[in-house]
Each structure stands twice: as structure tokens, then as C-alpha cells.
């Protein structure tokens, strides 16, 4: 007996998060009211990694994350979020996923970590490997600008 959970379908074998009707998922994303809603699938993915989901193919996994970020950016633009808010949200998510992957202690993450350390998302998308440090600088800048940058907070 198989039921659709509506979970994201970002996984190698399709067993976890088989996803529901793509059309209804697309419409739900268009109805999102904030950038966090648009990154829901990404946060779910972080949850799975922290709970022992290890992708079989690091390159394929990376491509799926890049696709997720591209879709996030397109949806955020459609919803008229500012370019700065979109950029800062992507930066924060890349910092989160990079740190989540490289800090896993289980030996089953070894191959994924090796592949990831060669080219973390923050380096390939933003040209820097200092996201763990820069994240807090950006956060402080956002906080100091108040309501103007509330969407990125």
C-alpha cells in the first residue's frame, strides 16, 4: 500500500520522498508567502542528511540541489522578491547544506564529503569558501536594515 506523501523527489532511488502531483506542487510554490516556503524541499533534504540519508552519487545529488536552487530563484522572481533577498537566501542555504554535509561523522558520508570538499556549493556559486563566517556578517547587515530586508531574514 503506497500513499503519496507530497515529499520532495530529490533522491537517488525514489524510495524516499516519491513526491506527489508535480502540478499541485508547482501551484503550492506559487502560493508561497515567503522565501522559506520556497526552500521547503531544501530544508527537508537537510533534515534527511542529518538523519542518515546518504546519496549514492554525489554528482547527481549536487545537480539536483543546483536544480532546486534554480527553481527557487525562478519562483522567488515570479513572486517579486528582491534580487538581494534571493541572493542572500541562496547564500544562506548553500552555507547550510555545505556545512551539513561536511560535518557528518558517520563513515558512510566519506565519499560524499570528499566530492563536496573539492567544490562546495558556496565556492562554485559565490566564489568563496567563507560562508560559515560570512553568513553571520550578512545576517547582521540584514538585521540592521530592518523591515526593508525582512524577507531574507
TrEMBL record:
<dbReference type="InterPro" id="IPR017732">
    <property type="entry name" value="T4/T6SS_DotU"/>
</dbReference>
<protein>
    <recommendedName>
        <fullName>Type IV / VI secretion system DotU domain-containing protein</fullName>
    </recommendedName>
</protein>
<dbReference type="Pfam" id="PF09850">
    <property type="entry name" value="DotU"/>
</dbReference>
<dbReference type="InterPro" id="IPR038522">
    <property type="entry name" value="T4/T6SS_DotU_sf"/>
</dbReference>
<feature type="region of interest" description="Disordered">
    <location>
        <begin position="1"/>
        <end position="23"/>
    </location>
</feature>
<feature type="domain" description="Type IV / VI secretion system DotU">
    <location>
        <begin position="35"/>
        <end position="152"/>
    </location>
</feature>
Amino acid at each position: 500500500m503506497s500513499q503519496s506523501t507530497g515529499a520532495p523527489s530529490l533522491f537517488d532511488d525514489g524510495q524516499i520522498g516519491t513526491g506527489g502531483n508535480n502540478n499541485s506542487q508547482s501551484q503550492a510554490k506559487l502560493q508561497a508567502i515567503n522565501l522559506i516556503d520556497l526552500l521547503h524541499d531544501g530544508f527537508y533534504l537537510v533534515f534527511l542528511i542529518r538523519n542518515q540519508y546518504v546519496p549514492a552519487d554525489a554528482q547527481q545529488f549536487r545537480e539536483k540541489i543546483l536544480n532546486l536552487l534554480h527553481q527557487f530563484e525562478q519562483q522567488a522572481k515570479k513572486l517579486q522578491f528582491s534580487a538581494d533577498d534571493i541572493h542572500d537566501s541562496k547564500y544562506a542555504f548553500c552555507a547550510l547544506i555545505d556545512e551539513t554535509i561536511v560535518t557528518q561523522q558517520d563513515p558512510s558520508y566519506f565519499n560524499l564529503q570528499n566530492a563536496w570538499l573539492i567544490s562546495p556549493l558556496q565556492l562554485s556559486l559565490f566564489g568563496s569558501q567563507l560562508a560559515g563566517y560570512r553568513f553571520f556578517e550578512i545576517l547582521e547587515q540584514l538585521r540592521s536594515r530592518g523591515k526593508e530586508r525582512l524577507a531574507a531574514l
